[in-house]
Design a protein that fits this description.
The chain has three helices and five strands, in the order ββαβαβαβ. By secondary structure, it is α/β, with parallel strands linked by helices. α1 packs across α2.
Length: about 130
């Protein structure tokens, strides 16, 4: 490593998360594990600071959820967006794509194919999955 000039990829969340890196949200049931990554995605999509501390670089985000019913997921997304607008005023959420994949994991090859189809649509700064 000393002989190579190593460069970090572009930041998504400055000093925390870089493009192509992985983050993990872990904890006991009902502790907010799916809310935190959804909030992170909304922050990157709108370019607003994450946890009011770390600057984000505005970019495209794919948030894929494997567990929550589509109607419940839509309600969560609505609530997250409303909270961000309440904090920052009008925001453009056009970079924030949310996909419900509940039930798609029954047949793993179909799940992989569907996921790849979604990912190929755009170049994402951040791709996250909640399961």
């Amino acid at each position: 490593m000393a002989d190579k000039e190593l460069k970090l990829p572009k930041a998504v969340v400055k000093r925390v998360l870089h493009r192509g890196s992985r983050g993990v949200s872990a904890g006991p049931p009902k502790s907010g594990k799916s809310w935190a990554p959804m909030d992170l995605g909304a922050r990157v999509a709108t370019g607003t600071p994450w946890l009011n501390t770390w600057k984000t670089v505005k970019g495209t985000v794919l948030y894929a959820d494997l567990e929550i019913m589509e109607a419940a997921l839509a309600d969560r997304v609505r609530r997250v967006k409303e909270a961000k607008v309440a904090d920052f005023g009008p925001l453009d959420f056009g970079n924030f794509e949310v996909v419900s994949m509940r039930g798609a994991v029954d047949r793993f090859p179909a799940f992989i194919q569907r996921t790849m189809e979604v990912i190929k649509r755009r170049s994402y700064s951040l791709r996250g999955q909640s399961s």
